[in-house]
Amino acid sequence: MKILYMVILLCLASCSDSSKGNSDTSQGNSAPPPPPKGSPTIAIPDNRDVDHYKILFIGNSHVGGLANIVQKMFENNLTTKLVTSQLAPGSAFLEERVSDGITYEKIKSEQWTHIILQAQKVSSSQSRLYPTKAAEFWVELVKAELSATPIMFPEHPQKGHIFEARYIHDIHLGIAEITPACVAPVGLAWDLAFKLYPNLILHQDDGNHANIKGRFLSALVFYQTISGESAENLSYIEDVGVDSITQEQLAQVASQAIANNEPCQF
Question: 50-260: what fold?
Answer without folding.
Answer: Rossmann fold (3.40.50)
